[in-house]
Amino acid sequence: MPFFRILALAGLAGALLAAQAQAAKPIRIGVTDGPQAETLAEVKPIAAARGVPIELVRYPNGKEINRDLAAGRLDAASFQNGVAFAHEVKRHRYPLVDAALTVTLPMGIYSRKIASLRQLKDGDALAVPNDHAGVARALILLQNYGLLTLADSTSLNGKSHNIESNLRSGLHGIESNPHRYRLVPLPAAQLAASRGRYAAALIDYVDAARAGLSPARDGVGMEDARTPYAGVLAVRRADLQQSWLKALISSYRSEPVARFILTRYQDSVRRPW
């Protein structure tokens, strides 16, 4: 065999091996423990069957995930709700976008005093988180249930920074409170215990889970699946049209994954797609 043909075949073989190695390279997704990671574990074999192997990279908290994604140490991230993600991207000017909705970890309304929000009385006290993001989310949820009305500058579409900026001056994001509900800001760790002291408490999913509570089972109200606080799958803007991303999203939205979410979480983790 002529030498140049040997070289050509060797080059072709090398290119094929390189392509196979590239195809087999796993997509690294940053996650924190909880339903986001558990759901992606169910997505993993489905995506692999579609030619997209996944490696879940677990972080003890989410503080470094978007930074590592922006730096190219991860290919995607699934740990954060859409409002928090948008705030972080804007703050750090990360070249990141949310490519798809994942699962919603709903804030719930919990009580030891009432079995329905219809049982609330004028002047009742409602415990809410005392951090800016948490109370903004709580106010939007209360508005969704028609319990109060927010000012025009705050809305149901997740643009909650206006509420957050007004917190220190006394929850001035509220436009109308006809039943004179008293909102009592408390640290997240104290909200579950406050259910017997106040008419109700609005508690984030993670903090409720730490107290053994789940919104569908124990709550008298909860966020809708398509809240602005639904979880997002984040990627670099440059990767938005990648074929692996399309396959990953279709795997996430497959019937086996939808069935897992419903069976595993009994509607306390919700599906916004």
What is the secondary structure topology, with strand pairs?
Blueprint: H1 3-24, E1 27-32, H2 35-49, E2 54-59, H3 65-70, E3 76-81, H4 82-92, E4 96-101, E5 108-110, E6 125-129, H5 132-144, E7 149-150, H6 161-166, E8 174-176, E9 182-186, H7 188-191, E10 200-203, H8 205-210, H9 215-218, E11 219-222, E12 231-236, H10 243-252, H11 255-265
Parallel strand pairs: 1-2, 1-3, 6-9, 6-10
Antiparallel strand pairs: 3-12, 4-12, 5-10, 5-11, 7-8
Helix pairs in contact: 2-10
If you had to describe this structure to a student in words, what would you say it looks like?
With about 270 residues, the chain is an alpha/beta fold. The chain folds into two domains: about 5-105 and about 230-265, Periplasmic binding protein-like II (D-Maltodextrin-Binding Protein, domain 2, 3-Layer(aba) Sandwich); about 110-220, Periplasmic binding protein-like II (D-Maltodextrin-Binding Protein, domain 2), CATH 3.40.190. Helices cover about 40% and strands about 20% of the residues. The strands form three sheets. It has a five-stranded mixed beta sheet with strand order 2-1-3-12-4. Helix 2 crosses helix 10 (about 245-250). The model is unreliable at about 15-20 and about 155-170 (pLDDT under 50).
